[in-house]
């Protein structure tokens, strides 16, 4: 009950807030209050609301398209096969049980209703979801099989129940398994993000600083190589390097040292892209008037570089930082396969091969959510870093 | 310095102007001659390109690779695919480089190329990979330019196209590949379809941005004022401006497509090796199944073609970007 109260209150508050903001920015209420206008009619706020609205539409579109693709791929007959194998004694009742089980899971003949059902599940309303499991009760000589709801939980975002995935995951909630795998991916991915940020920025700065120098040429060669060579080939080249210097190349969850090889591989790849853009934006800023003025004032090159140029050059670059951090949650499918990391990539492959509807659909929902949140976070970070985008309306 | 220029001004002011110049006379023959050669866009591009030693080396490497993809399997010929003419020749696996097998032979843990002559396998694979890259790059470029220029020119298309782009960005492409390959038989055109499906939109977006940048330039506004049709605007005013971008895009799309095929093959979504279609991606994927740490030649064999192929095409693309830009000419 508590979750329901909190959930509905939050939804009501959000709706009211959006209406309030729209009214204030259209000058329907608080027309003369400067303070209110300044806070609630801020362009960034309005922009964010519009973005979230169109983003939700994009998510629904992606879900709808993939929903039908997944349905076309497999019609969920395995559920019945599984049920029939388990309930051999049932005889004629098998069909009935099977249909009711499918209906409970949200897999029926009517795809359109299933789709609406799925929309309801992922819309942010609080709802109680129960795991479906079959229970056998022995009464005298006969065993009675029944479907029962166990392990009920309250969800805001319900992604369904796993049914075919196997590996001890059957019967668990999709959201639980995805978040479990995400943590595994994230542990490696976050090291990679740090590596690429900590190496990419200095590399870009160095390259911009001695443009056309030796370091610039080496850097450019590296960037071209990374861009051109197929990822898989390139990851294996790094794996050979790590194997020769003695880093463990087989991932094991308990040993942090084994995180290093995959993380460094990811980091060294991401570093090239960052360095390329840092270099380009810094060189663009070099011709600006304020740099010439700083030079005319007699400031040292290093001071111009780090205090003046870099601060302006990073403005378009910080947008990608939240995306990188949140992207670490999803991991890199290729690297996870190469190093045997049991993260989201592995889940994707195994859910595809076992055609588990809800896991596939869940991964799509989660990755779409992540890409939208990171886009919004990028906007907000840019607004914070760039003093030209201010929170007061002039 | 200051004194000097003052003196010059003085000399202009106070002396007869004719003292400052020498009359050399006019020659009737030279009047009719053009001193500089007539400007040709493609000749100038070529001149710029051959100025770069790295570009020439890249071109030579590409020509070598193309030569070997055509003639490589004939130079050292072993049968690697079983068909009606005969069975594949299988040798002792895990052999290193030798006179008989220039790239060694396949490892015994490899699924498809166990004991086969890797020289033949790799060059036959490069044939299909290169063809695939070429076809995908051409289709990509065609779609990208067509849709991108329409998208840039007609603003009304924006909502639809942005929705498509969001879809491609939001859904992991690997997942869609998996879902689509469940319905499609792996053959040449389905792989082409799979590879083009997600790459044209990025290209179209790129072309659209370029079109938007130049659309409101003065010469285009003048054209609109004179009543040019949309078709004439795109083909006569906008596309010629984009020619350098287009050339670059084609040559970087080829290595990109070859790389994507490697990615597909790594998850088993490419051609089925059992049917006898060999690509570089499959050879590489199969090599990673074997003990490549003890027998490094297994991994080196596909890489020795794959890495130069992609890097040189990519570099040529970058060099062409500079060379085709009219600002760098003359």
The computed structural class of chain A is: mainly alpha
Oligomer: heterodimer
Q: Total helix count of chain A?
A: 17
Which stretches of chain A are low in confidence, meaning pLDDT under 50 for 5 or more residues running? none
| Secondary structure: helix percent of chain B | 55-70%
Q: If you compute it from the alpha carbons, what radius of gyration of chain A comes out, rounded to the nearest whole angstrom? A: 27 Å
| Shape field of chain A | flat
Sheet with most strands of chain A: 2 strands, antiparallel
**What's the N-to-C terminus distance of chain A?**
46 Å
How much of the sequence of chain B is in beta strands? under 5%
First-last Cα distance of chain B: 33 Å
Q: Could you please describe the fold and organization of this structure?
A:
The complex is a heterodimer of chains A (394) and B (330). Chain A is mainly α and 394 residues long. Chain A has 17 helices and two strands. Chain A has a two-stranded antiparallel sheet with strand order 1-2. In chain A, α16 (344-353) packs antiparallel against α17. Chain B is an all-alpha fold and 330 residues long. Chain B has twelve helices and no strands. Chain B has helices at residues 2-14, 28-32, 41-50, 53-75, 118-153, 158-170, 173-181, 188-215, 218-225, 230-266, 280-289, 297-323. In chain B, α5 runs parallel beside α8. The longest helix of chain B has 37 residues, at 230-266. The two termini of chain B are 33 Å apart. The mean pLDDT of chain B is 81. The interface between A and B is large, with 40 and 41 residues.
